[in-house]
Amino acid sequence: MIANITEEYTILSEKISEFRRGNAFPSRIDTNDDMVPEAFRNYGYPVTAWPILINEEMTAQLMELSVKIPKLLQQIPDLYFNKNMEKIADFYFEGDEMMAELGMMCHEKNLELGCRLDLTYTEDGFKILEANIGSSLGGWQIQSLESVIRRNHPALSEKDHANHYRTRNTLQIYMNYLIGQVIKHIGKENKTLNLFVDMRDMEDGPEKQLNIAFFDDLFKQELAKFGLEGEACTGDMKALELISGNLYMVDKIIHSVIVLSLDSEISPAVFRAFIMDNVYFPDHLGLRMLGDKRNLSILRELALEGRFSPEENELILKNIPWTAPVGHTKTIFRQQEYDLPALLRDNREKFVIKASRGYQGKDVFVGKYLNDGQWQEALDLALTTDAFIAQEFSDSIGFSAPNEHNQWTPHKLIWGAFGFGDSYGGVWVRMSEVTSDVGVINSATGAVEAIVFEIID
Predict the structure, then answer these.
(1) How far apart are CA 392 and CA 446, in angstroms?
(2) SS3 for 457?
(3) Cβ neighbours of residue 222 under 8 Å, at least 6 residues apart?
(4) Which superkingdom heads the taxonomic lineage of this protein's source (predicted)?
(5) Has residue 5 got a pLDDT over 60?
(6) Cα dihedral sign, 209-210-211-217
(7) 19 contacts 12 by C-beta, under 8 angstroms
(8) Side-chain half-sphere of 410: how many Cα atoms within 13 Å?
(9) 331-389 pLDDT, tens digit each
């Protein structure tokens, strides 16, 4: 019962008194509810029926980080590598200088980035754990459940209260941003823009049809705000043809291609159309550089050297924990020099080891939750493959939240904050009950998802 909560931090912030004081509804949302768009019925992960409330200060912090950090990441090839192709190839492309040249060719088109920062909120504020770059950013789907949560809580639905709680429709913000970028880089032809969505990870069938229909409907809604028409379609990227410089899907000109799959190969036709500036393609080869988790270490190194503005240097050093590529090398940790393997081996509970290109919580080893033997195995793997980073463990404070039985207990939270160029796209949360915490808080490994509402006083 909410009335019994005494913890300093709760997911309801300071607004506990405005919410129900009982558990008269299930703790998890039934995603088959009639209010949920058909495309997101049978949603794959549990979603709490309670909101996460954040105040204006937390909103401002997330907004600043989500917009500024991607812009700083874009400066790494120039500031850190001085555009040296050999060094860029060795670091990001396994020594393949041709791929590095192509990646830099794409990068130098200087497209704005779509990014989701994964953060934890510690006793020292927000800490960035990783920066996910590109269109294949999970988490935006949960916004489709907003109406169900509002219905559960009078404070979110009654006219006198509802205006004090705002959510940001991440996908709608993204679509508006995407259309603006297509117009900026490609222009508009006969007031028509068409979008190709690569969804190759999803099997052909009713679910895929529902998803592209949902995308198409929202795309058309946002196009209308620009006075434009068009549609979103999907299919086999290899079926796209380059004809007289334009990219075609059968007889339809495609103006933008986005890739919702991870590690997808790009067809030659799409690449050529992009290089010719005839298609807006934000998921280009350059993202292989910008999405590498080792970049957080590079940002810290550049900030320590004072390579950014004083405000940017401070932002980086405050919000990015100590991070370093794992290797047989020396490192500076808390102003002292150490042998990196020895530092990690002897201080297991202070560090996390994770793959520099991992996703969905895969190949993440949290020392606090492993024994010495398991930690040594993780360290040996990292040292052998040369594809891992080490990061100082940033433990989430315990937020009181309802578990699956509607009992309010401490939970650890991971925040996924979206930035699209200069636009802040909101934040989504994954949380895990402290009593069952295994260190990796990810939807794919059992975390519960939650919608965030901003308190507007």
Answers:
(1) 23
(2) coil
(3) 172, 175, 176, 179
(4) Bacteria
(5) no
(6) positive
(7) yes
(8) 12
(9) 999 999 999 999 999 999 999 999 988 766 678 899 999 999 999 999 999 999 878 99
Question: Taking residues 78-84, what's their average pLDDT?
Answer: 96
Q: How far apart are the first and last CA of the chain?
A: 26
Phi–psi pair at 62, nearest 5 degrees: -65, -40
* C-beta neighbour count of 20 within 10 angstroms: 14
Is domain 322-392 classified as CATH 3.30.1490? yes
Q: What is the pLDDT of residues 212-258, one digit of tens each?
A: 999 999 999 999 999 999 999 999 999 999 999 999 999 999 999 99
> In whole angstroms, what is the distance from residue 115 CA to residue 283 CA?
11
User: Residue 325 in contact with residue 356, Cβ under 8 Å?
Assistant: yes
| Burial bucket for residue 42 (CB in 10 Å: 0-12, 13-18, 19+) | exposed
- Structure tokens belonging to residue 166: 């705002």
Instruction: Choose among 156, 81, 67: nearest CA to 115.
Output: 67
CA distance 455 to 449: 19
Spatial separation of the C-alpha atoms in residues 265 and 198, rounded to whole Å: 11
**Does the structure show a pLDDT above 70 at 439?**
no
User: Where are the chain's structural domains?
Assistant: 187-279, 322-392
Q: What is the pTM of this model?
A: 0.92
Q: Beta strands 165-166 and 448-455: pairing type?
A: antiparallel
Contact in structure between 322 and 300 (CB atoms under 8 Å): yes
Please, which residues have CB within 8 angstroms of residue 247's CB and are 6 or more apart in sequence?
196, 240, 241, 253, 254, 255, 257, 269, 270, 273, 278, 279
Whose tokens are 């830099």? That residue is 104
Q: How many CB atoms lie within 10 A of CB 317?
A: 14
Angle formed by the axes of helices 310-319 and 295-304, to 10°? 130
Phi, psi (5° rounding) for residue 155? Answer: -65, -25
pLDDT tens for each residue of 94-114? 999 999 999 999 999 999 989
Can you tell me the distance from the alpha carbon of 26 to that of 405, in angstroms, rounded to the nearest whole number? 8
Please name the helix (run of DSSP H) or strand (run of DSSP E) that holds residue 98, with its range, or none.
Answer: helix 97-107
* DSSP 8-class letter at 203: P
d(CA 67, CA 63): 6
Q: State the average pLDDT over residues 315-327.
A: 97
The SS3 of residue 317 is helix
